[in-house]
Structure to design on (466 residues):
């Protein structure tokens, strides 16, 4: 039986009515193929923790059309999983949710985007294709994630203007049909100035997700945090002083981006290094990327969920960077700079004090969706909701229960969920021979159909464990 992770304990009834600030959440669909505790699909998404959910990614075809990249995962044809349909059906649970189709991403590169953007006929064809695609699959909008105009195989002399024209054509076509148009953009000045006429781009987009993460990593000469809020004293060059959230947001604002359209991007993962002789201070030299995480399996990267999971059996030493308002952890030769609830609270305060449009997260499947850190599922997303929207989340009681060998109602016969036969608010997750007990927040009971804690009026508590 395939395990369906609990979407969230409190979820179902957080309302975004009247919310002025957006919480935009990217879902990297390839996480479905991860193994063990890293496996994440549509069933694991909590549709009440985001105002907008972004399905990443679709491709762009050279003739000017949206391209399906994983037909088996995305579509229902030929016994496919039909994830697009499942993703958009999340709006049945939360009618206020908006779903967005993202085109591009790092792996898509820049060459095909450049070819389409620099041709008026192909731009128009793509805009028409986008409207048809959104209507067919019931998305609410399109996110353009071209990384990046004028770079990585694009045309340095024409892409900047072409991207503006591309967005203009898309704006005319999509907004006429009531669709949302957004973009994910480079953050630092030295990159953004190559790619965007910021004042013009701001005219056509409904919101701009500024990717203020991956600002440092093992490609650098020094140890540096993934997404520092401010510059550090070790940032010595003009380029280094651009690699922080405040510098990037300030540049976009000064360049004419409407502040109410700016979304501050935050990561749900860390970037890591291998230390030399225990030199852990940011700005120290390093010996290459940290070890890969057990699920993301990428050197120099560790999901927040992976860090929480490894802490079940490994001791990491915690540090707080007083200059950059971000944490980092060390263990042996390993150094990981990341974001936690505390640093996200500082960033949310930054959003509010600068009257920005909200925050966006890349990406929800590396938040601690299984609750290994002991603070419930999706603690990072919940912190953002609490900080921006004032949402309160009751604490989740989680008590590990030893494996049982006798035939009891809560015996771990197979992996998956089961509800206690005598207590409708108590349920169990069986995994790998271990059983874990959970108690729904006060006033809610466990829904065996949707595997969430739900209102009693929506649940048949007479149903026994399957």
């Amino acid at each position: 039986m395939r395990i369906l992770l609990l979407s969230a304990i409190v979820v179902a009834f957080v309302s975004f009515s009247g919310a002025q600030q957006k919480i935009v959440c990217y879902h990297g669909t390839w996480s479905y193929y991860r193994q063990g505790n890293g496996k994440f699909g549509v069933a694991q998404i909590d549709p009440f923790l985001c105002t907008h959910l972004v399905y990443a990614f679709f491709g762009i075809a050279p003739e000017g059309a949206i391209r399906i990249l994983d037909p088996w995962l995305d579509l229902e044809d030929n016994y496919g999983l039909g994830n697009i349909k499942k993703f958009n059906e999340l709006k049945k649970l939360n009618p206020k949710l908006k779903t967005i189709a993202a085109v591009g991403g790092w792996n898509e590169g820049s060459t095909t985007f450049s070819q389409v953007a620099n041709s008026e006929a192909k731009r128009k064809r793509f805009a028409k294709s986008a409207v048809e695609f959104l209507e067919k699959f019931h998305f609410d909008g399109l996110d353009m994630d071209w990384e990046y105009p004028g770079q990585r195989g694009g045309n340095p002399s024409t892409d900047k203007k072409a991207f503006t024209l591309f967005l203009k054509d898309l704006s005319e076509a999509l907004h006429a049909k009531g669709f949302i148009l957004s973009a994910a953009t480079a953050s630092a000045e030295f990159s953004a100035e190559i790619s965007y006429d910021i004042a013009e781009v701001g005219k056509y987009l409904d919101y701009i997700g500024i990717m203020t993460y991956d600002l440092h990593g093992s490609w650098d000469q020094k140890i540096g945090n993934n997404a520092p809020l401010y510059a550090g004293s070790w940032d010595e060059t003009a380029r280094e002083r651009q690699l922080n959230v405040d510098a990037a947001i300030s540049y976009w604002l000064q360049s004419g981006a409407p502040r109410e359209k700016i979304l501050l991007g935050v990561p749900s993962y860390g970037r890591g290094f291998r230390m030399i002789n225990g030199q852990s201070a940011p700005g120290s030299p390093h010996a290459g990327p940290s070890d890969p995480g057990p699920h993301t399996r990428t050197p120099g990267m560790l999901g927040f969920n992976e860090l929480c999971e490894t802490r079940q059996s490994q001791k990491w030493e915690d540090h707080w960077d007083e200059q950059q308002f971000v944490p980092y952890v060390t263990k042996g030769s390993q150094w990981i700079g990341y974001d936690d609830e505390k640093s996200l609270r500082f960033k949310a305060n930054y959003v509010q004090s600068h009257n920005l449009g909200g925050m966006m997260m890349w990406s929800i499947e590396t938040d601690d969706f299984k609750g290994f850190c002991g603070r419930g599922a999706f603690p990072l997303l919940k912190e953002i909701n609490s900080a921006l929207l004032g949402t309160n989340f009751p604490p989740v009681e989680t008590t590990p229960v030893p494996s049982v060998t006798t035939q009891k109602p809560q015996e771990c016969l197979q992996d998956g969920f089961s509800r206690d036969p005598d207590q409708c608010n108590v349920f169990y997750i069986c995994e790998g021979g271990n059983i874990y007990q959970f108690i729904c927040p006060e006033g809610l009971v466990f829904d065996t159909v949707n595997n969430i804690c739900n209102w009693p009026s929506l649940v048949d508590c007479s149903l026994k464990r399957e």
